[in-house]
């Protein structure tokens, strides 16, 4: 079996020194050696790894330059010679990069699996080698094609998640969850078990990354034209700045925002007058509160149930592909790469 191993940094590719964690160029080989040592005990160490490193960074520092570098790396790889691809990544932003890969690589006929670690590999608390081991097993057992994430929460079983369904970690927690608990499957005593009721057929490849050379992307480039809004008590709205093409508005867990917040009417009017669509993520699953009437009143688009982080990446891909407002609205409501959850 042959696997392409793509290292991008993160805790799984880092070493702790002087009380700080930083990327380590030798970590790819450390991880592979740790895997082989464990695999030999189970008599399944027949894996050949080819290693690529398009970039190495702590995942909290990623931006669209990193997405393009990863896309170029994967696009240039000869996927016909591999049984699968494993991408190592930091936990802080794995939800975003996994969703990015999910949208541009869903039509692949081999599994692509992201892995990360809650602590550096030398730390006995680390789940890094466990996550990696079961990513290899998922590829070995040929249980799916498309893009996934392998992760084992403390005290839990190794789970395989769809790349487009991950939620952000809760504060002070390294546990990883899919929206609605709808992960793809899990391992039990070494055997992979599909989650009941899941469709296993891959979607078609859904979006391209425009062929813009990395050298043409401004250093420290932002996520092109998206304004993200989070609700909070006593909220005050500011107007979208120059270059904003769309707004992604988060909600409280009940799907609400403060409907009488200072500046909301002006914000909504400005967005409408300047043809800036406002997408509400986190609503549409449960009781409708009176405060939610403002969505229709202001012309906000309420998105179906999906990971807000995946919706952010989906919206960004629409923008860099120069989609019209009508096209963006249609794509954001269309199930792609298993992202939207049907109630």
Annotated CATH homologous superfamily of the largest domain: L-asparaginase, N-terminal domain
What is the string of SSEs from the N terminus onward? EEEHEHEHEHEEEEEEHEHEHH
> What is the residue-averaged pLDDT?
88
Strand content: 15-25%
What percent of residues adopt helix (DSSP H or I)?
Answer: 25-40%
Total individual domains: 2
Overall body shape: elongated
CATH architecture of the largest domain: 3-Layer(aba) Sandwich
Could you characterize the architecture of this molecule?
It is a single chain. The protein is of the alpha/beta class and about 350 residues long. It has 2 domains: about 1-195, 3-Layer(aba) Sandwich (Rossmann fold); about 220-330, Rossmann fold (3-Layer(aba) Sandwich), CATH 3.40.50.40. Helix content is about 25%, strand content about 20%. It is built from 8 helices and 14 strands. Strands 4-1-5-6-7-8-9-10 form an 8-stranded mixed sheet, with helices on both faces. Strands 11-12-13-14 form a 4-stranded parallel sheet, with helices on one face. A two-stranded antiparallel ribbon has the order 2-3. Helix 1 crosses helix 4, helix 3 crosses helix 7 and helix 7 packs antiparallel against helix 8. The relative contact order is 0.13.
